[in-house]
Design brief:
- With 505 residues, the chain is α/β, with parallel strands linked by helices.
- It contains 19 helices and 16 strands.
- It has a 6-stranded parallel beta sheet with strand order 4-3-5-6-7-8, with helices on both faces. The chain has a 6-stranded parallel beta sheet with strand order 11-10-9-12-13-14, sandwiched between helices. It has a two-stranded antiparallel ribbon with strand order 1-16.
- Helix 9 packs across helix 12 and helix 10 packs parallel to helix 11.
- The longest helix is centred in the first third of the chain and has 18 residues.
- The protein starts with a helix and ends with a strand.
Length: 505
């Protein structure tokens, strides 16, 4: 393959890995820390549009504070978790937590107003860095408008980062949509192992930082007995965990289905106890509290915002039922057998069926390319079907064991490569190595440099940015101890051969 690449430099070839990581690289201009040095502080504008993004954002702010050589000042849009890290949200995060196609239409006017408010606030804040987290519909519109506003003053433009790559891999023609992303995004922080390689091959600088759920799994061990004592659940009860979602539109659609499912299980399960996890979204909290009053089954509501309580509940549970999303990954990595469900407006479901190119909706199944986690989607998502799948999970040890054993493989796939902290005259507070997703993301944000014309930097330098090169590259191989700079300069006149740099991290 390497020989073919050398012989045909015009051929579009995706990045690949040999014995060590191989990536394109190019030259650099000022990093965020360089911009911050002029003001004596680092101003970061963040936008998260849903609960999972709020969690990611809160950890990212904490990591930035830990690593930055300058005081961090934040502004933007977020939820309760980011508020604990000092972010005063421009407006309730729930105002932009809308997903779907038909479901989006009633909210268009409000979204336009919120978008304008966010753009104006970002311009007034004069950030060194803008970080949008997931919610690509709102995020990309924001970044495009900011880019347009700064186009006359490019030297003062902040760096744009998008955390959680758009799911291009799920849709027909998805990869082609990445082609224009570099016009308004300087760097993508990817949470799945195959995303960064594809982004870079499409001209978008990207880093695989690892999945955020790993940070909970590494830190927390659930305590089943503590949870049962605190919520008055007897040791003989069969605990069924229910996660109906974090957006009001999905909760209102899924919770009635889950209620009927639990009713069907009552006569077949010994002393059932239903635990509903309530996302830290005020609209969702109000709806769930009002709805469960009409349930015939006993229900325990677990408030969102406490990872310890959440994983204690997982540990006490026999099985879980969740709406597709981050929850499926949390349950899987916590080794709690679960069933994934999803319904939407029929027009949205029709578009998904037509445009989707993968057969699964939950990330563990996508990563393993196997239906390890049972899924009940669209018209198949009925109380009868869900009850049947849950019963099988509770009583079929072979099916339970398959889910549990697959979790370790998924964890390994989601773990980022060991990343080296930047050193030298930047006075990075974090020594040596750390491979937590938040710290890798924070390090990338602080020390990433925009692509610019100039002499190539040394790939052994931790401040050298790995990004798609606009020049026709050459092949350079070796360990981190090789003299890259000399070899690059010696062959600087050669531009008709492809270059894949073996980075010695």
């Amino acid at each position: 393959m390497l020989l073919k690449l050398m012989q045909n430099p015009n051929r579009r070839t995706p990045l690949f890995f040999l014995s060590t990581v191989r990536k394109y690289f190019s030259t650099s201009s000022q990093a965020a820390v360089d911009l911050a040095s002029k003001d004596g502080e680092m101003r970061i504008f963040l936008v998260a549009g849903e609960v999972s993004g709020d969690v990611i954002g809160s950890r990212l702010i904490a990591a930035l504070k830990k690593l930055s050589p300058y005081p961090i000042r934040v502004a933007g849009v977020g939820g309760s978790m980011m508020a604990k890290q000092g972010l005063k949200s421009l407006f309730p995060m729930e105002d932009i937590a809308v997903m779907g196609i038909w479901e989006l239409l009633p909210h268009l006017k409000k979204l336009r107003v919120r978008l304008k408010e966010t753009v104006d606030a970002a311009i007034s804040f004069r950030p060194h860095v803008v970080v949008t987290i997931d919610s690509k519909g709102f995020s990309f519109r924001l970044l495009k408008q900011l880019k347009a506003r700064y186009c006359q003053h490019e030297n003062n433009a902040p760096l744009h980062f998008h955390y959680v790559a758009p799911s291009f891999w799920a849709w027909k023609g998805g990869e082609e949509r990445l082609n224009g992303l570099s016009k308004f995004v300087d760097h993508v922080l990817c949470i799945l192992p195959f995303e960064a390689e594809v982004c870079v091959s499409r001209g978008v600088p990207a880093t695989f930082v690892g999945h955020p759920v790993l940070e909970d799994i590494q830190e927390l061990k659930g305590n089943a007995n503590l949870f049962r004592r605190e919520y008055g659940i007897s040791s003989g009860s069969t605990v069924i965990t229910v996660l109906p979602g974090s957006r009001l539109q999905e909760v209102t659609r899924m919770l009635p289905i889950y209620s009927k499912t639990i009713d069907l299980l009552k006569d077949s399960v010994k002393d059932p106890a239903t635990v509903i996890h309530v996302a830290p979204n005020q609209h969702v909290e109000n709806y769930i509290k009002k709805t469960v009053n009409e349930w015939t089954a006993d229900v325990v509501l677990v408030p969102g915002g406490s990872s310890h309580t959440k994983y204690d509940a997982f540990s006490a549970s026999a099985v879980a039922l969740c709406t597709s999303g981050t929850a499926a990954m949390e349950l899987h990595l916590a080794r709690l057998p679960c069933v994934v469900a999803y319904r939407a407006h029929f027009l949205t479901e029709w578009v998904i069926r037509y445009k989707a190119k993968i057969p699964y909706i939950s990330l563990p199944n996508i990563l393993l390319n196997s239906p390890v986690i049972p899924e009940a989607l669209f018209r198949e998502c009925t109380p009868t079907r869900l009850a049947s799948l849950l019963m099988e999970l509770m009583h079929n040890e072979e099916v339970r064991a398959e889910q549990i054993s697959a979790a370790e493989k998924v964890r390994q796939l989601l773990s980022p490569p060991l990343a080296r902290a930047a050193r030298g005259d930047l006075d990075c507070k974090e020594p040596s190595f750390d491979n937590s997703p938040s710290l890798i993301a924070a390090r990338t944000i602080l020390f990433h440099r925009k692509v610019a014309a100039g002499p190539a930097c040394d790939p052994t330098d931790p401040n050298c940015v790995l990004a798609p090169s606009k020049k026709r590259p050459r092949i350079v191989e070796g360990s981190k101890d090789d003299s890259y700079a000399e070899r690059i300069k010696a062959d600087a006149h050669v531009d008709d051969r492809p270059e894949i740099v073996v980075v010695g991290h």
